[in-house]
Amino acid sequence: MESNRSVEAASPLEQRILNLAKSQSTIRTRDAIAGGIHPEDLRRLVDRGVLLKSGRGMYTYIDAELTEYHSLAVASQRVEHGVICLLSALQFHGIGTQAPFEVWVAIDVHAR
């Protein structure tokens, strides 16, 4: 359901950010910069209540319909070469009965 926020008065740049946020579950600051969007524009939309800062360098559209796997998606974006594993992978695939309270991610030995 769409809210009554002041999205109509958005500049073309802000509208581009909103379209990106609606099409993806989260926007990373570095992806916005690569797309020619300044981080300050993201902060302005957070201040207006249109975007939610969901983590360091991560933004989510406030009216996005998030699933129970949103935290897995955010973890996957935060750890680019990581692999969701162990209890998190089992829960995602519906195997077993345990529900981890944290996301399990495997990374390469040489990753930092």
Characteristics:
alpha+beta, 2 domains, two-stranded antiparallel sheet, 5 strands
Walk me through this protein's architecture:
This protein is of the alpha+beta class and 112 residues long. The protein folds into two domains: 12-61, Arc Repressor Mutant, subunit A; 70-106, no CATH class. 38% of the residues lie in helices and 13% in strands. It has helices at 12-23, 29-34, 39-47, 70-78, 86-92; strands spanning 27-28, 51-55, 58-61, 83-84, 105-106. A hairpin with a 2-residue loop joins strand 2 (51-55) and strand 3 (58-61). The model is unreliable at 1-7 (pLDDT under 50).
What's the CATH topology name of the largest domain?
Arc Repressor Mutant, subunit A
Spatial gap, N to C terminus: 41 Å
Secondary-structure element series:
HEHHEEHEHE
Tell me, what is the CATH class of the largest domain? Mainly Alpha
- Give the percentage of residues in beta strands: 5-15%
* Overall morphology: elongated
Structural class: alpha+beta
Care to count the β-strands? 5
- Helical content class: 25-40%
User: Major β-sheet, in short?
Assistant: 3 strands, antiparallel
Number of helical segments with 4 or more residues = 5
How do the strands of the widest beta sheet line up side by side? 1-3-2
Please indicate the count of domains.
2
Taking pLDDT < 50 over at least 5 consecutive residues as the criterion, the unreliable ranges are: 1-7
The CATH architecture term of the largest domain is Orthogonal Bundle
Mean pLDDT: 85
Q: What is the CA-atom radius of gyration, in angstroms? A: 16 Å
